[in-house]
Amino acid sequence: FRFPFSLEMESSVCMDGTPAAYHLDRGSGAGNKSWIVNLEGGGWCNNARTCRFRTRTHHGSSNFMERQIIFTGIMSASSAENPDFYNWNRVKIRYCDSASFAGDAFDKGTGLYFRGQRIWEEAIRHLLSIGMASADRALLTGCSAGGLAAILHCDQFGAFFAGRSTTVKCLADAGLFLDAVDVSGGRSLRSYYGDIVAMQGVAPHLPPTCTDHLDATSCFFPQNIIDNIKTPIFLLNAAYDVWQIEESLAPSKADPSRAWRACKFNRSACNASQINFLQDFREQMVASVRGFSGSKSNGLFINSCFAHCQSELPATWNGTPTIQNKVEV
């Protein structure tokens, strides 16, 4: 469903100016008044060249989006695969802004729209108008760039239900991107995020509890946000997040000698020093959630898998995982 919004410069549109969109599978039975809103992921772009390229894909234009998609994992309609949410109203908001639904800018030179924040706000208002306002339960989820978006927007999501009796929670899958040192001693992801925040006008939409004492780029990193989120949130992440290993810790620019080329794609090819580097990254991730984990309203599952996104894949979301008699969701 394409949002019924105008195509004016000020409206909520994809990067090429086409209307934003979402997919909805209505709930039934006991899940009729429960809603799960999934923010699609799919990376980012940090300059005119990469952003223009994305306008020729569904990550930058609704012209390239499928009219129908298959919901899997936490979005599945199968009671066997997804016993907790299969009969809920399930919504996937398509990702076509490339800044985790957080930017608000227009580049006159390139003609690119960066309206992620507006897409987010208009989508939620529209869903409220078609039934979500009367929800008993509402869950905001997302994976990867969508997982980061779920973290950034969790309290905003909760605020939409202020004054209502709705139980509101969030789940961020593979969204715990760390401000980590790469194999060259630099900070590749920080540099990349800095470009995104500046180009897309992200700063005004970041949590003020972070921006009141840190720079905007730092506040695009979840480790600097999660401790102050008031809405209950669950973090699901692989400690050896393969995207972060490949693109943040050992990107090609940081590894000109290609010493990490084999290791980053196949852990069995890593030498002892590289294994130690990866284990240190795991320790950084565990340390980043230490304060967060002290809250009784929050939850987390940080596993030692080499993976990226686990809630939307049938192979890693099948039934309800249980650890020491505690379920994951």
From TrEMBL:
Pfam families linked: PAE (PF03283)
Gene3D superfamilies: alpha/beta hydrolase (3.40.50.1820)
One record GO biological process: cell wall organization
Sorted UniProt keywords: Cell wall, Cell wall biogenesis/degradation, Hydrolase, Secreted
Classification via InterPro entries: AB_hydrolase_fold (IPR029058), PAE/NOTUM (IPR004963)
Compartment annotation: Secreted, Cell wall
SUPFAM superfamilies: alpha/beta-Hydrolases (SSF53474)
Entry GO CC: plant-type cell wall
Origin: domain of life: Eukaryota
Major location category of this protein: secreted
E.C. code: 3.1.1.-
Transmembrane residue ranges: none
Molecular function GO terms recorded: pectin acetylesterase activity
Recorded family membership: Belongs to the pectinacetylesterase family.
Function field: Hydrolyzes acetyl esters in homogalacturonan regions of pectin. In type I primary cell wall, galacturonic acid residues of pectin can be acetylated at the O-2 and O-3 positions. Decreasing the degree of acetylation of pectin gels in vitro alters their physical properties.
Full protein name: Pectin acetylesterase
Lineage: Eukaryota, Viridiplantae, Streptophyta, Embryophyta, Tracheophyta
